[in-house]
Input
Amino acid sequence: EANPLKRVAGKVSDALGGYSGPEEGIPGKPAPESPSFDEPTTPREPLPAKPDQSGPDTVSPTGQPTGAEQARMAQSGAFLTDAQGTRLYDTDHSLKAGARGPVLLQDHHLREKVMHFDHERIPERVVHARGAAAHGTFRSYGTAASVTKAAFLTQDEETPVFVRFSTVLGSRGSADTVRDTRGFATKFYTSEGVFDLVGNNIPVFFIQDAIKFPDVIHAGKPHPDREIPQAQSAHDTFWDFVTLHTEATHHTLWNMSDRGIPRSYRTMEGFGVHTFRLVNAEGATTLVKFHWKPKLGVHSQVWEEAQLAGGVDPDYHRRDLADAIEAGAYPQWELGIQTFPDTPDQTFEGIDLLDATNLVPEELAPVQPIGLLTLDRNPSNYFAETEQVAFHVGHLVPGIDVTDDPLLAGRLFSYLDTQITRLGGPNFPQLPINRPHAPVNDMLRDGMHQTAVHRGVAPYRPNSLDGGCPFLAGADNGAFVETPVRVPEATKVRAAPESFADHFSQPRRFWLSMTPVEKEHIVGAYTFELGKVYEQTIKERALQVLANIDPDLCEQVATGLGLPAPAPTVPLADVAPSPALSQIGQTWPTAGRIIGILAGSTDLDGVHAVREAVLAAGMVPLVVAPTGGKLGDGTLTVQRTYVTARSIEFDALLLAGTPGVGSDAYTARDAESDPVPVGARAGDPRVGLLLSEAFRHGKAIGAWAGGEAALEAAGVPTDAPGVVVADSGTAALERITTLLGAHRVWERFSTQV
Ligand code: HDE
Output
């Protein structure tokens, strides 16, 4: 059948008296034939949502549709229409005076289409612009019921959630794997209203007072003149600020540690950062800090890997999260709290709980698990959900209240305010992703983008015309009542308390808690970042800050920079290390790990067996071969080729060989039976690169049946730590799985663990 679009146009032209499209070609040349790619032609309703694509369910007392109904309103009917529902017969050509003539202003379809397109983008978030999100549920263990009356934290309660992860500094299109803090924001759609826990993957912050936020962000963002560098802190203005404003030292040190380059959103811890105040049914209060603990453990990339990923797969974290959920490997985190008595001074073991540059070591206040978060559904539309979701630290529910942390106070203003610009007005809570699942009966009316059709005539209180509705609840009916905390009598000042003045002892504790290999990474990160700084005075000041954390750290970075190491200007704090701060030394689940299998050999039975074993262990096998297509008898699909495979994607590599390789029998038959003999693979520079990178990045590598030939060709010693040569693929996999429990082969790094 010829081009169906032309056919439709033909029908219209019948009605128009036989006009059948442009006749006038370029003078002197015949009109070109339209290409005739076939398109389905039978009109039908839009495709139903995929199982993981239904919109968020909402309960709206204002008569607003639920998620499914909303989707129906967004798209229905088989035919293309304009925004008013009028059917269209052509969307490929502007209305013109003759096929080669001028376009007519009266073309409503053209003007509407282009007008809407012109406004498709909204301002990106001023910080945390780059993000990825998922839906899920939070199941409460009920263990927090003694300290909070929040209904969603009672026994076995299940609450729908939406979680958005993000980087902080980069623009919306920037790379995922840059060195930066990560956002970890959770919206709980509870029966008592929305609770947002808007946290980060680092438990401390750069500043103690919100009034410094524009300063630290202006310093971290690209330079105002050239707008470079994008999405990173390795530049003069950042280091200028954080070395002058030394309360930023602790957060900066975390950023320079492996925490600044997570392996995946799935392997990050999350922190509420501030101290919050919980209130129980009796009105008793407890101060708490929130923690998210990933079930897969806390893992990071190594710096070279993060840099490579920025080029070969800038969407690395976004893809990883979506793929895992689509594959059914649902990421999980346990929510926990550290609890502290709500004393008038709001300190714990000498640590000021209102200072967001402090953490409380888990050894002093253990994290007590209170519930489990599972992310099990990808968004169906990035813009509608991930982009339009609006978090706010002031979205609280009864039982969870704020403290006087001056950083939190500023946030309580900022998160509402920023949405006015970003989402274009005050009605963003009506966007489907933001709608509470609890009944809403506010007296907020009108404004830009008002989509609710409010009933009644009396959006004010008191009223008699709407029968007095809405009514005030009171604590007995679940109202949010601010905790009556005593404010000390004081004089109005612009000042910080004396207890905010120690900027070095907490960073020193962090440094002393690191294993040697983690310290090596920190030294490498400072040396890289400061090496990118142009101003000599900033480098010197940075070294002074490092000396005040630890002279050994300072000495090593100074050596890398080729500068003298200054002596500390403050007494070095005598702090005990907190082993819980280290990411190394534990054994973690291997579920969800990605195993690259270099195939293309004749031992396809071995490859089949190892693939099955990887799947059975809950890991992900990816078969890599020189070219795409199928291997052997056609039952083995190639998933990555030498062109598309990069080492960053794999947690471990397995090299299949050829049974009998090296023997006389093999030599005789290899060319015929093995389209890609081991020898050819071994010499391929792309395989060499894959192996040398995986080796450098501390990844486990296994080989069987002669597969080690490729290792030898790549200069990877087969007797190095974490390199396994076994009799069969499954035997190699077994040993590699044990190695993966430690995440990386740490012994490969120059410093011992
Ligand atoms: Fe934010 N922050 N922030 N922040 N923040 C925003 O809100 C702000 C801070 C965090 O995925 C903005 O809707 C101020 C700490 C996350 O949508 C803005 C201060 C922590 C996200 C804003 C802070 C965070 C944001 C930009 C200092 C960790 C992304 C867009 C007082 C506990 C949320 C928006 C998402 C986003 C202001 C400090 C975490 C401008 C003024 C501390 C995870 O309102």
User: Anything to note?
Assistant: The chain has 20 helices and 20 strands. The first helix runs from residue 4 to 15. The longest strand covers residues 131-140.
